[in-house]
């Protein structure tokens, strides 16, 4: 009775809808069509194809589209596997290779056919710690080439297992799920659709909840596939189609860029580039290296790839295999040749990136969890809840993973280096939520107690030590991030795994304070945003815990001024930013006496190595009032001991006053332009070093090796309306 009803629906559906060609002149017209709630089935150069009701055809015509009724297609079915042939084929594979091939059904079609999955893997009946990869052959019943490819693939993997090392490794280390004929009813009826007339690739929930599909609700096959995929942990998947030759990726439903867009595009190109016809001769020809973002081609609401990525985190691709949906079977070996390497690479790629395993730190048992990978917080993935494994392809880089599980502390793992084309293994131990008490002392390096030191566990609690240096703090067991600090000491950061009540003692290193002064006197050019740079060299490797800077500027109107401090690492902080109104002079210590205006604060320098050239930029940005930089001093607080590292083998050509035996002059160019650089001796004889050289803003070095006679010299730099002269001494 149910079957009869379904057949009746199919019958009435075919009467109602006709195959049509909708002519388009410009690509943007495809969005006008989909905006009218008309689903495009194939997009060709110059026209779109669909199946439409009289009413829909009229709607298009009213909107000015030329619509042509087409006859239904006929297909050369000989030598293709029909449903019975497909079942017989996978049965013979399972029969011949029972240790690496098995089949199971995820449900039945509306007309009662089993939807078979052929699984290929070693230990094929066990869910192992291996990445899962899935292929669907036929989703549109009249696009059958994918089924043939999956049968070729199954043959190749099983027959050459044990003899071909690469194929053997894929079978041993991946779980490969093939659904050769998902829409078996459509295939048997030579129809694109499910038996109820629904387009199977317009029937899935749209990520933003938009309505979809031509039949209300979710069809039986769609629900069965979603239920199965929800229990799986598939990393990468492909659904094959016909009627074009291109890899199509997320999103179909919106023009917005999907999370991990660059990764998805890279994997898509990875498939296409291994398929010479798809990469070199794609259809449509305006493809991006054989690929296209779904919406950029045409909008589809309710596609499998959108649902699968949104719901399960699986990077699911829609791959159009061939411009002719149902080519002569004699072309199949060539289409298999085109796709073979791409399919094998795709299986391999599902295990690249991170291969992780999440377990309970105490028992070692798998822990079901969810996780995300910073900086992308919008996409949350899950691991395999039974085995505990997870697999995440990523572009090469350093990532932070955050794992969450019921009954466990959230676990953050930073600095995980991941490569796109190889595997990083990651063992994640989760700590159960158990209350623990942590106590201990904070002392200095001589063992003397430090009172009022702050002991903080990030995200948990903070406390202060008593006069004996003792502290006591509660937390949940797990990996805890301690920060222990006290003015005058180097702040201590430590990550400690705490599983029970524990004593932890901390030793804080006393901070040393070192001053680096310069007494250069430099006039500040009036009303010139290019300003001046003055440099200062710190000749010791000192880790900056804290920093202060003393500035001495005499000026008659300080809101004309910008003062900016730039570290050797290139960090820049605006000490003074045209504030202070009509006040005179900036003299004092930032930030203990003078507030830092920003952008930036002196804390921005924390953790940097102080070694190298520091620069102070000063500019006067209004006319009339003028002033002078009379010197400045860096005060560095560091746990390191200053011993002096080495004399720099260069002099600051423009503004460093330091007599050394020079090999190299350092030029700090305030403005891009043409410069002359020369060296003049005390007798006035000059040697040209650079003649009318175009120099960009910033540091440049000039070789002074040719100056061999010991004595006093001047380095003279001229250009851009400026002249700089510096005295230096050569001692060879
Ligand atoms: Zn299709």
Furnish the topology, listing elements before pairings.
Blueprint: H1 2-16, E1 18-23, H2 29-35, E2 42-44, E3 47-52, H3 54-62, E4 67-69, H4 83-96, E5 101-108, E6 114-120, E7 132-138, H5 145-159, H6 165-173, E8 175-181, H7 184-188, H8 220-231, E9 234-241, E10 246-249, H9 261-273, H10 276-280, E11 291-293, H11 294-297, H12 304-312, E12 315-320, H13 332-349, E13 353-360, E14 370-374, E15 376-382, E16 389-392, E17 397-404, E18 411-418, E19 423-430, E20 435-444, E21 454-457, E22 461-464, E23 470-476, E24 478-485, E25 492-498, E26 502-503, E27 506-508, E28 512-518, E29 522-524, E30 528-538, E31 546-555, E32 561-566, E33 572-577, E34 586-590, E35 612-620, E36 627-638, E37 650-652, E38 664-669, E39 673-681, E40 686-695, E41 698-703, E42 711-719, E43 722-730
Parallel strand pairs: 7-8, 7-9, 9-12, 10-11, 13-19, 20-26, 20-27, 37-38
Antiparallel strand pairs: 1-3, 1-4, 2-3, 5-6, 6-8, 10-12, 13-16, 14-15, 14-17, 17-18, 20-23, 21-22, 21-24, 24-25, 28-36, 29-36, 30-35, 31-34, 31-36, 32-33, 32-35, 38-41, 39-40, 39-42, 42-43
Helix pairs in contact: 4-5, 5-13, 9-13
The chain binds zinc ion.
Zinc ion binds near residues 201 and 241.
Description of the structure:
With 732 residues, the chain is α+β, with helices and mostly antiparallel strands. The chain has six domains: 2-69, Alpha-Beta Plaits, CATH 3.30.70; 83-243 and 306-349, Aminopeptidase (3-Layer(aba) Sandwich), CATH 3.40.630.10; 353-430, Immunoglobulin-like (Sandwich); 439-503, Sandwich (Immunoglobulin-like); 512-638, Sandwich (Jelly Rolls); 650-730, Immunoglobulin-like. Helix content is 18%, strand content 39%. It contains 13 helices and 43 strands. The strands form ten sheets. The protein has an eight-stranded mixed beta sheet, with helices on both faces. Strands 28, 29, 31, 34 and 36 form a five-stranded antiparallel beta sheet that branches. The protein is globular. The model is unreliable at 1-15 and 645-662 (pLDDT under 50). Zinc ion is lined by residues 140, 143, 201, 241.
């Amino acid at each position: 009775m149910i079957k009869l009803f379904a057949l009746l629906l199919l019958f009435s559906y075919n009467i109602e809808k006709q195959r049509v060609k909708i002519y388009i002149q410009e690509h943007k017209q495809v969005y006008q069509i989909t905006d009218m709630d008309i689903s495009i089935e194939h997009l060709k150069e110059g026209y779109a194809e669909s199946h439409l009701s009289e009413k829909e055809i009229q709607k298009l015509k009213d909107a000015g589209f030329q619509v042509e009724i087409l006859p239904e297609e006929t297909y050369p079915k000989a030598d293709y596997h029909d449903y019975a042939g497909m079942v017989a084929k996978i049965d013979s594979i399972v029969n011949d290779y029972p240790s690496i091939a098995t089949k199971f059904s995820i449900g039945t079609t509306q007309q009662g056919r089993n939807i078979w999955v052929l699984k290929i893997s070693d230990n094929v009946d066990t869910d192992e710690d291996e990445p899962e990869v899935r292929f669907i052959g036929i989703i549109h019943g009249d696009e059958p080439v994918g089924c043939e490819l999956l049968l070729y693939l199954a043959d190749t993997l099983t027959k050459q297992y044990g003899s071909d090392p690469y194929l053997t490794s894929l079978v041993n280390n991946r779980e490969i799920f093939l659904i050769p004929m998902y829409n078996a009813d459509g295939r048997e009826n030579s129809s694109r659709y499910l038996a109820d007339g629904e387009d199977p690739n317009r029937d899935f929930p749209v990520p933003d909840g938009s309505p979809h599909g031509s039949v209300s609700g979710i069809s039986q096959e769609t629900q069965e596939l979603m239920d199965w995929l929800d229990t799986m942990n598939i990393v990468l998947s492909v659904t094959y189609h016909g009627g074009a030759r291109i890899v199509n990726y997320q999103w179909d439903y919106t023009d917005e860029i999907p999370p991990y867009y660059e990764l998805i595009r890279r994997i898509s190109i990875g498939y296409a580039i291994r398929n010479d016809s798809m990469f070199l001769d794609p259809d449509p020809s305006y493809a991006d290296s054989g690929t296209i973002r779904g919406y950029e081609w045409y909008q589809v609401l309710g596609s499998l790839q959108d649902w699968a990525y949104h719901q399960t985190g699986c990077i699911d691709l829609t791959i159009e295999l061939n411009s002719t949906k149902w080519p002569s079977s004699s072309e199949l070996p060539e289409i298999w040749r085109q796709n073979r390497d791409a399919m094998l690479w795709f299986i391999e790629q599902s295990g690249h990136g991170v291969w992780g395993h999440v377990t309970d730190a105490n028992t070692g048992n798998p822990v079901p969890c969810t996780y995300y990978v910073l900086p992308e917080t919008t996409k949350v993935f899950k691991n395999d809840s039974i085995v505990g494994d997870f697999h995440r392809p990523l572009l090469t880089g350093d990532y932070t993973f955050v794992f969450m599980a019921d009954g466990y502390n959230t676990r953050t793992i930073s600095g995980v280096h991941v490569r796109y084309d190889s595997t990083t293994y990651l063992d994640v131990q989760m700590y159960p939520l158990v209350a623990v008490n942590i106590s201990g002392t904070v002392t200095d390096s001589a063992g003397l107690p430090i009172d009022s030191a702050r002991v903080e566990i990030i995200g948990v609690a903070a406390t202060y030590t008593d006069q004996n240096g003792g502290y006591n703090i509660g937390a949940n067991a797990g990996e805890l991030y301690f920060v222990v600090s006290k003015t005058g000491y180097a702040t201590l950061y430590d990550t400690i795994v705490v599983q029970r009540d524990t004593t932890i003692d901390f030793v804080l290193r006393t901070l040393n304070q070192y001053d680096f002064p310069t007494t250069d006197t430099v006039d500040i050019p009036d009303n010139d945003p290019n300003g001046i740079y003055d440099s200062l060299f710190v000749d010791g490797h000192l880790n900056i815990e804290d920093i202060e800077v003393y500035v001495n500027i005499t000026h008659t109107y300080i809101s004309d001024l910008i003062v900016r401090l730039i570290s050797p690492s290139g960090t820049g902080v605006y000490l003074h930013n045209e504030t202070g109104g009509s006040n005179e002079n900036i003299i004092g210590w930032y930030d203990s006496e003078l507030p830092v205006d920003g952008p930036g604060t002196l804390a921005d320098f924390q953790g940097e190595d102080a070694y190298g050239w520091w620069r102070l930029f000063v500019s006067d940005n209004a006319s009339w009032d003028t002033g002078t930089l009379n010197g400045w001093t860096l005060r560095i607080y560091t746990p390191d001991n200053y011993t002096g590292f080495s004399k720099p083998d260069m002099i600051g050509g423009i503004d460093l006053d330091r007599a050394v035996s020079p090999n190299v002059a350092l030029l700090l160019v305030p403005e891009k332009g043409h410069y002359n650089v020369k060296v003049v001796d005390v007798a006035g004889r000059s040697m040209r070093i650079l003649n009318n050289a175009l120099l960009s803003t910033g540091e440049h070095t000039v070789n002074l090796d040719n100056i061999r006679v010991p004595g006093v010299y001047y380095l003279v730099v001229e250009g851009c309306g400026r002249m700089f002269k510096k005295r230096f001494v050569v001692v060879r």
